[in-house]
Design brief:
Number of strands: 14
CATH superfamily of one domain: Immunoglobulins
CATH class of one domain: Mainly Beta
């Protein structure tokens, strides 16, 4: 009996010895894999990318170059260092900072060889030949920024000083204050988005108002002599193309801001007179339909019946369109 017990103990000891040797060998191999006994380098932690996305519109701007530029030492970094992208056929864009940048930034929408923009007064595309900008106080994981003539006003205003997050916020507030009688809010999408906002009549009203005011800008470019270029020549002067007229009006609107917190009262008065004189009775309204496609729908934005027809054509039910348009008509300026 003792012999059998000794045999069993001997087998256990031998097995443990083999296991221990195996563990030592495995540890040696791990150390060798880490540099033959030297200290191992820590694994690099990659930053989480941050991004800016949105829509660029004077009318919708297509196939334009988009730069998202960090604000460095009070100014936008050189274009070559900026994150870049391109606007789509619906004016949308998305640009990624691979380094996870979270500071203030300037977005530039610049013309390329095939860049076009929608002319809301005709529903046709025309060459996009200017640069429009927007500024944002801070970039987060995903930041939405809309680039319009109104955002260009804020970018132009803050560019008169050393740029930082606080001054960007102040410039945006100053522009919205100057444009308050038209209900301008730079955070509002310049398109009626039924796909993502179809159940939110308040947001749809704000989007419709933004579209209406952009329509007024397009109309003023062609019809008003109150907005002029730097030499005092009216933007709607004869022998100028529609693209030139649009670019002239955008620059004239930006010129009403004489600092990041103040505006020129005379220029503001002329701008407002030029815009409010436009009766938006026949505009090609950009709408993201309920199925996610984007259409330019000819609409009389002063008529509830026309607006309801446009909403139904974009996929809303009759009842929802009637209820939504009732709110829209009371909220547009």
């Amino acid at each position: 009996m003792m012999g059998n017990a000794g045999s069993r103990f001997g087998t256990t000891i031998q097995s443990n010895s083999i296991l221990g040797a195996g563990m030592v060998l495995a540890a040696a191999l791990v150390i060798a894999g880490c540099g033959g006994g030297g200290t191992s380098s820590p694994t690099a932690v990659l930053p989480t990318p941050s991004s800016i996305s949105g829509t660029a519109a004077k009318g919708l701007i297509k196939q334009a170059k988009v730069l998202a530029c960090r604000i460095v030492n009070g100014a936008p970094e050189p274009d070559a260092s900026c994150a870049s992208g391109t606007t789509g056929a619906d004016g949308s864009y998305s640009v990624v900072f691979s380094d996870g940048y979270t500071g203030p930034a300037m977005i530039k929408v610049m013309p390329g060889t095939s860049s076009m923009m929608a002319d809301e007064t005709t529903g046709t595309d025309i060459p996009y030949s200017m640069t429009m900008r927007a500024v944002v106080p801070a970039v987060s994981g995903t930041t939405t920024v809309y680039v319009t003539p109104f955002s260009e006003m804020a970018a132009s205003a803050v560019s008169t000083t050393t740029i930082d997050a606080t001054k960007i916020s102040q410039s945006i507030a100053a522009v919205q204050s100057a444009m308050s009688s038209l209900g301008i809010d730079l955070s509002v999408m310049p398109m009626v988005d039924l796909k993502n906002s179809g159940s939110n009549s308040t947001l749809l009203t704000m989007q419709s108002n933004m579209v209406k005011q952009l329509g007024r800008v397009a109309m003023a470019a062609k019809n008003s002599s109150l907005l002029t270029d730097a030499s005092g020549v009216p933007c709607n002067a004869s022998a100028t193309s529609t693209s030139q007229q649009m670019a002239c009006v955008v620059a004239a609107m930006a010129g009403v801001m004489n600092s990041y917190v103040t505006s020129d009262t005379t220029k503001v008065a002329n701008m407002m007179a030029a815009l409010t004189a436009q009766n938006v009775t026949n505009i090609s309204m950009p709408v993201m339909k309920t199925d996610g496609t984007v259409a330019m729908i000819a609409t009389d934005m002063t008529s509830a019946a026309s607006m309801q027809s446009a909403m139904q054509n974009a996929g809303m039910t009759v009842n929802n369109a009637a209820n939504t348009v009732n709110v829209m008509m009371g909220g547009m300026h």
